[in-house]
Amino acid sequence: MIVYNVTCSLEAEISKDWLKWMCEVHIPEVMSTGCFTDFKILKVLSNVTGDTGVNFAIQYHANTLKDYEKYKNEYAPILQEKTKAKYGERVLAFRTLLEEVNG
């Protein structure tokens, strides 16, 4: 399984609005692409010293690397732009691609 992890750091005062928008708008749009089979929203509990923001990790699960690549190439630029248009620099995202390893 491939896990596309998007860690978002945002200003505390917009966290409720952002989370509502993610659950009602953004994540349904991502999932409607058909590239992912499941997702999880996680709140990051460990913060960097001096960080006054709130951090979340959204993990999207894909069956194959090909599914992720399709999302990245065909859908991600438009959906990421929508987020930037709504929240600007108030939300910073860091993306990682992971592969589940059973050992």
List keywords for this structure.
alpha+beta
Describe this structure in words.
- With 103 residues, the chain is an alpha+beta fold.
- The protein has one domain (13-89).
- It contains 3 helices and 4 strands; from the N terminus they run βαββααβ.
- The protein has a 4-stranded antiparallel β-sheet with strand order 2-3-1-4.
- Helix 1 (15-31) runs antiparallel to helix 3.
- 12% of the residues are buried.
- The model has no long low-confidence stretch (mean pLDDT 93).
Concise description?
With 103 residues, the chain is of the alpha+beta class. The protein is built from three helices and four strands.
Distance between the termini: 14 Å
Judging from the principal axes of the Cα atoms, what is the shape?
globular
Order of helices and strands: EHEEHHE
Radius of gyration: 14 Å
User: What is the total number of structural domains?
Assistant: 1
Tally of DSSP helical segments? 3
> What's the main sheet like?
4 strands, antiparallel
- The strand line-up of the biggest sheet is 2-3-1-4
Please state roughly what percent of the residues sit in beta strands, choosing from under 5%, 5-15%, 15-25%, 25-35%, 35-45% or over 45%: 25-35%
Structural classification: alpha+beta
Q: In terms of topology, how is this protein built?
A:
Elements lengths: L1 E9 L4 H17 L6 E6 L10 E9 L2 H10 L1 H12 L3 E9 L4
Antiparallel strand pairs: 1-3, 1-4, 2-3
